[in-house]
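Appendix B. Chain record.
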Amino acid sequence: MPRLLLLLCTLLLPLSSGADVVKPALVEISVFADGHYEVELRASIEALLTGINARYKNTQDAPNAAEYDALRKLPPEELMRAFEPFRPRLLERVAIRFDGKRSMPRIRQVTIPERGYTKIPRISVILLEGEVPKSAHTLTWYYPAAFGDNAVRVRQVNRQTQEYHWSDWQWIRDDSVSQAFSITEVANRRGWTDIVREYVIAGYNHILPRGMDHILFILGLYLFSARIRPLLWQVTMFTLAHTLTLGLAIYGWLTLPAAIVQPLIALSIVYVGAENLWHRRLARSRLALVFGFGLLHGIGFAGMLSEFGMPREAFATALVSFNIGVELGQISIILGAWLLTGLWFGRRPWYRALVVMPLSLLISGVALYWFWDRLEWESIRALLV
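Structure tokens predicted for this chain:
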């Protein structure tokens, strides 16, 4: 039994690092019928300047994490000055090719948002432009892995006829060049099954392995009772709540600042773990609290989904598919926890004292650290002024 607890603690302790990761850059290339192109690159300039990319599961593990944190606190005009020397390197390293021949773009505009809540990476927009060679048929895109992972898609634009045709996204994580995009043939719209598959995977990946705070919350619900009925009630309340706010937030009907949402999500995990210590029976008050916490987590899901992008032609399908992926992720967590503990020890008299209570304390302790780490009083004061 001590070995089992040691194993579980070993699995949980890495979660204390939080979820401060560099998100993939989103690249949208528009090819216009009049012979020019634009590249809209949405990425963290702070990460570009410091070389912190996807190889770091937590930005605080990078050797220059202090420099990265300092850049995140800069106002837009100061970060812009820091970015100026990097411009030539950006143009040198990225590559857009038409029929295999490289085009040299120029930077037309850089938009850096206000500092805001620094615990979440600030996404800036870098707009490149250039000319499309006559009679070109295809283009490829290269974004070095040293800058991070990226997702790219191409839009064919004819402003005179008001025609706009998007390609599918290509997700690139291995320092490779994109597959060739046709700029002469109209991109086929994705089928229903393609959209479902893409967004189910996105929802699942948002839980496993990326959603560390959601993983701890679900584990906290699981540990409350070894019996299936209390677990089902709690997961149902959580699912209904986060589905509601996910839909409202994605449609733009509900917005809350990340400076408030992120600490409260951590605090919800603290409470769930702590309540496991003194409650043995499922009460309506716990279900109400789980529902309320689910509302917060749904807003957190919406932030990721908004950045991922939603297809206008199949918005509802993508939203439902993403939510299905989230549920599959939650089921995987519960099933894995049950195979480790509930299957073998769930009905033993010492299960609560030796499994539930130590792990619940560990979950609350990790989440309490997250809560303190995510508090940013300056951002909160700015919201209240």
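Further analysis of this model is presented in Appendix C.
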